[in-house]
Every structure is written in C-alpha cells, then in structure tokens.
Amino acid sequence: MTIISRDDRDGIAVLTWDQPGSPVNAANRDAVAEFIAAVRAALDDAAVSGIVLASAKAGFIAGGDLRELLQVTEPKQALALIAGMLQIKRAIETGGKPVVAAVNGATMGGGLEIALACHARVADTTALLGLPEVGLGLMPGAGGTQRLPRLIGLEDALPMLTDGKPIPAARAQELGLVTDVVERAALVETAVALARVTKPVQPWDADATQGARVLSEAELALLAAADKKAARRAGAFDVAELRILDTVRKGLTLPFDAAMALETETFVNLAVTPAAKNRIRTMFFAINDAKAIRSRPAGEPPYALASIAVVGGGTMGGGIAFTAAMSGLEVVLIEVNEAALDRGMTAIRATGDRQVKAGRMSPEKRDAILARIRPQVGYDGLGDVDAAIEAVIEVETVKADVLGKLSAAMRPGAPIGSNTSTLPITRLAGYCARPEDFLGTHFFGPVERMPLVEVIRGKATTEATLARMLDLLKRMRKTPVTVNDGLGFYTSRVVASYTGEALTMLAEGVPPQLIDKAAMEFGMVIGPCAMADMTGLELLIDILTSAYSDAERTSIQGHRSLEALKRLVAAGRTGRRGGAGIYDYDENGRAQPWPGFADLFPAESDEPIQAVVTQRLMHPQALESARALEEGIVASATDADVASVLGWMFPKGSGGVLSYVDTLGAARFVAECEALEARNGARFSVPANLKAMAATGARFHAI
Length: 703
Ligand code: NAD
Hints:
The protein is of the alpha/beta class.
C-alpha cells in the first residue's frame, strides 16, 4: 500500500501524501516510516535537485496519531513516536536541497510542523494553518515552539501557540508564514518553481549561533503578559500553555539544536500528564464520537430532513430556529400571536446581525438563513414537516396544549422534541397524539453557540424516533448526549447539586468571594454565586424547588440552598438585574462585595480553607453523576464527561466530571467524600459503584 508517491519533474521530486481509505493524511507509525524513507531517497538521489511535499487530500498532513499518543504512559514511549520525524526534519533542513511545502486545507499541528521545517511554503486559498495542540493538553512537539517564533517573530507566534486557533492562508502570507497563496490547481506547480530558486538554508542555520539570542524587553513583557493569562486559564489541571511559554522563552535563547532538545524533553513529559490524557480522551475522541452520533441506534435507516417546525420563538426557540435554518433546513416558526411572532423574528434577525458583526458569516448568508424561516400563528400545513421542537414557556398546561395540537398536525413518524428544562418527558408524552414519536431535546443557550443537546428518551420513545432526532441534531451540527428520563434528567440534576452546595455554604456564612474563587481557580468559567446572581435569585428558587421536588434524593439531604435564597430575596436582593444579589453591582454591572453579607449570614464556624470549599463544590457533581450512572439515567462515564464539559463548563483539563474521579483516584475521592459526609451530612454519601472502584482501584476510563 503506497501512502507517499513520487513524481519527478525535471529534477524536482514531488512527494504526494495520499493515505488510502482515509479522508485525511494521518501521520501514524506506518505513514511516518514511509514518509521518512521517501524523503531520504529523494535527498540521496543525485538526480534530484529539489523536493516538494504535497497532499492529495482536501487537507495537508494531519498531526500525529492521537490514538497512538493516548496509549503512551511513559515519556520514553512518546519519544519513540516522534524521534524519526524529528530527525528527518533536520535532514530536510540541512540536506542541501531546497524543500518546499505545498499546503492546502487543514494544515494543523504536526502537518504545519512539517511545513515549518521546509525552506519555503506555498498555500492554496483553502489553507488553514494552526497549532491546536494546546487544546488537547499538549504542545507542538516537532519543532513548532521553536521554528514558528524564529520564522515569524514572537508577537505573532504566541497567539498561535497559546490559543491554538488556526489562521487562513491570506493572514499566513501577511505574517510571512507562506510566500505565495494560489488556487489549488496552481499549487504544486508554484511549489515546483519555488524549489528551483529557494536557498536550502533555514534562517537559524545561517550562522554558527543557530539563532540563539537575547530576548528584548518588549518580548519579555509579551511573555510575562502571556504567562499571566495562561495561569488564569490553567485552573487546577492544565499545564500545557504555561509549558509552551516556558519552552519558547528558554528555547529562543539557545542554539537551535539545544532548543529542539528542550522542546522534545518538555513535550514527552507533557504527553503523559493527566490533563493531556483527559483532553485527548474527552475533547477529541469522546466529543467527536458524540458529534458523529456513534451511539445512534443501529439498523435504523438514515432520516433525510428538509424542514422542521419550531414552536415558541423566545430565547431558546429563536436560537433553535436560527441554527436549523443555518444548516439549510426550511423552518416554520410558530408563536401564540402576531405580536409574539414579530418579537421573535426581531430577535432572530439580531442574532444574524451579531454573527455578521463577529465575522462569522457574510450578510448574504445571514439573509439566506432568515429567508428560510417562515413565521406563522397556529398549526396549519405541518403535515409535511420532518420534525418539530417545542420551546414554549415552562408551564405544563401550556406545553400540554401545544404538544396536543402540534402532534395532531404532524405526520406519524416525524419526531417531536421538547426543550423543557425540568418537566418529565414521559409525563409530557401523555399529551401527544403519538407518545412514541416524542422525546426531550434539552438545548443550552445561546443555542447558536453552545454545542450540547441533552436528548431525553421517554418510556414510549422508539428507537426510530431517537435515531431521527439524532439525525436532525447532527445536521444542526450539535453534539448530542442521550440520557434516560428522570427528575432533572442528567445535566440539570448535577448542576442543582453544585449550585445547592454553594448556596448551602452561603447559609453557613462562608463568604461568596471565597466560594467563587475556589470554583474559578479549579477552572470553572464563572463562580456559582456570580452565576446565581446572573440567573436571578427568584427564578433560581423556582428552578431549585422543582429540581428538589423528590425529597428522597440523596443529593439534597441537609442542604440549605432554598433557605439562603429566600433570606436574600426577603432582604430585597434578587440578583444582578436588580442591582443587588449575593453581590452588589456597580453602575457598569460589575460585582462588588456586599458589606451586609455577614449580618444576613453570620459565620457559623471558622472560615473553611479553600481546598475544602473546592471539594464541597466539585465532589457533589461527581457523586451525583455516579448516582445517575448507577440509576441508568446516563449511559456511560464518557457521556457524563462530555455533557459536563460542554453543558456547564466543567474544566476541560479534568476530562469531565467522572474523569475527575479518575484523575484524583477513586480511593482518594471516596475518602474525601466520607470525611465530607461526616461533617456535612448524607448528601456526600458514596454510591456503591464508587465504593467498589475505590476498593479495587478501578477507573471509569482505562486510560
Ligand atoms: P421564553 O419566555 O424566552 O420563550 C417562550 C416563548 O414561548 C415566548 O416567545 C412565548 O410567546 C411562546 N409561547 C408561549 N405560549 C405559547 C403557545 N401556546 N404557543 C406558541 N408559543 C407560545 O422562554 P425560553 O427561555 O426560550 O424557554 C423556552 C423553554 O426552554 C422552556 O421550557 C425553558 O424551560 C426551556 N429552556 C430554557 C433555557 C434558557 O436558558 N432560557 C435553557 C434550556 C431550556
């Protein structure tokens, strides 16, 4: 099986990478071995005066094989994976023959690193160049941290290394990362011409110091600012961004080969850290599986959709309608009257305008999307729509009325989803003409940005209905996680345990600043007290009252969250919108400590240390997830992990809420919960599955 083919054009060897049977050129062991052999042969061939590296796929060369990297448990195994590539790149650079990369489409990670080792790079107009390793808890380990800043300067290289966001070809040309940008048809030809005139010397090999230099004051300031940002983003798990910065800072002052040795050493150690494993497992493999709906019921035929109905054009319904139209579906948007329709359409147009303003779409694309949304009052003409999602207000009588009329108007077999946050799906199914066509589709706002949809199977939901709804969600580019019905489904139930514990600490007189600081330093994007104020404390009373309506539930034994909320509301403190909640708010809406807090909530004991506050906030989420797993609400630890990082932003470096238990070790986690239970009550009691894991040393994930 040939992966790399060679075509000599008047002394220029064009090596084209074309992995058979794969949409991308994955740099796995076999492919890398063939690449090395092909490059060596061309370098050694006296008839070859220059080399072009190209791809026959829609993208250039994808990075290293993450499946191979995930298996690695020791630094020296990671080194074995990359050593050959490191050597051949130095051979390319110092072999005396010009080597030019012809890059197209996705040119990411290891792919870009190969291009960086070439003496020149040409891109086609589709090229997207980036080093996304940081998002996987890794760093570029094949020269990226050293070649990129030496080539384009520290200031432009740093954001690429630390944010991991790719840049388009035109920007790469501005930065000097590629010399030319041409149409795809002219790509290889341009590279061949360049290989005839390019000097086969890298800037860092042009003198004896190999580019070693002293960093300027301005560069040191840039690095210091980047360090600060990285430390803030690191949370309790992530180390990659800080290591990247450190490697860049030290590496630039060293001769190139010594700098490469430093990068290699740092990379192989980083590759075996828990955060790298966690991120690769969850952020790459698990999320890609969910996006590709690999858990779709087997044997159900694909469901082709052309149109859907969305009932309720408020915050959520508007976002759902916009996202569906964005995926090319015709959308019927149904509201209760013309005035509500107008309000809904105005908000949808504003969503479109925001996308244009943020540069995410062209005005033409926005207009085409809006043209696909047809507003109407009532349920006429729904016999042909292929699916529907209900997103009316969270009032059961209203949902009952809407679902009855909607299901009667639709054809049998067309799935109907409800975007309820709390109402049991099996109960709502009773209002439908055909309960078997019905299920829950719990979106997260803002819908056009948040990928997760929690899909809830009711008792009567058929496999066909589930498969069809998953096909719709895939079409809408969502990341669905399917769960079984139960109070608070999966996500709302876990979030309630987290918010509940934060508010219970408030009731005990623990300062909100300490609670939020603990959450943020763990890696949450916002603290639970600030979040409560944003939600609004009165609404939160409603949400938690409903979430806690099963008095038997372990997670609410002894909690005092409603007590804390009611005391706040009675004192006239309703949240951020009202200007005063758990915090005070200045005229710019910024939170300030509220001096009256200690009077309303006198401290009941000594202030806890931050580590204990962190445990009290985070452990309940893992406990509640383990209980949901035991009860069969959530199907796997992987599903729980995906829902947690996408749904309520549990830190990515933890790998998700149950990977977090693996990261700590089940024995330690259980021991900490037992100590918490002794002090705080039965809501910290450990379910049997976790106890067994602690006893045997088992993990939720093998790696
Ligand atoms: P919203 O108040 O913004 O919108 C509800 C819309 O439903 C309004 O436009 C209203 O006019 C319309 N409506 C009311 N009665 C109707 C009827 N009989 N027929 C047609 N339309 C009718 O509410 P929202 O925040 O969009 O929430 C909608 C649903 O989504 C609720 O079930 C809510 O619990 C759930 N949800 C909300 C969020 C969130 O963050 N807002 C998140 C997940 C789920």
